[in-house]
Amino acid sequence: MNIILYLLLGAVAGWLAGQIMRGGGFGLLWNIIIGIIGGFIGGWLMSLLHIQKAGLLWELIVAVIGAIVLLFVISLFKKK
After folding, report:
1. What's the Cα-to-Cα distance from 39 to each of 30, 44, 47, 48, 79, rounded to whole Å?
2. For residue 54, which phi and psi values (nearest 5 degrees)?
3. 3: Cβ contacts below 8 Å, ≥ 6 apart
4. For 33, how many CA atoms within 13 A lie in the half-sphere containing its CB?
5. Which end of the chain has fewer beta carbons closer than 10 Å to its terminal beta carbon, N or C?
6. How many CA atoms lie within 13 A of 50 on its CB side?
């Protein structure tokens, strides 16, 4: 059941990051992937800052932050 929760959380995080970054979304499948990778990036960033909290909402916020960072890096390499 946890894997389904992580996929849903990744999908929401990727979608939110795509909305925040304006045009940064890549479709549902890629948004899920970006959201999941963003969760790892966000978790890594929060551990560097020594910020640790618990809860589903916090995990979503961290995943969105990580996905925004990932979309920003992707946009640096994306041809316009």
Report:
1. 14, 8, 12, 14, 25
2. -125, 160
3. none
4. 6
5. C
6. 0
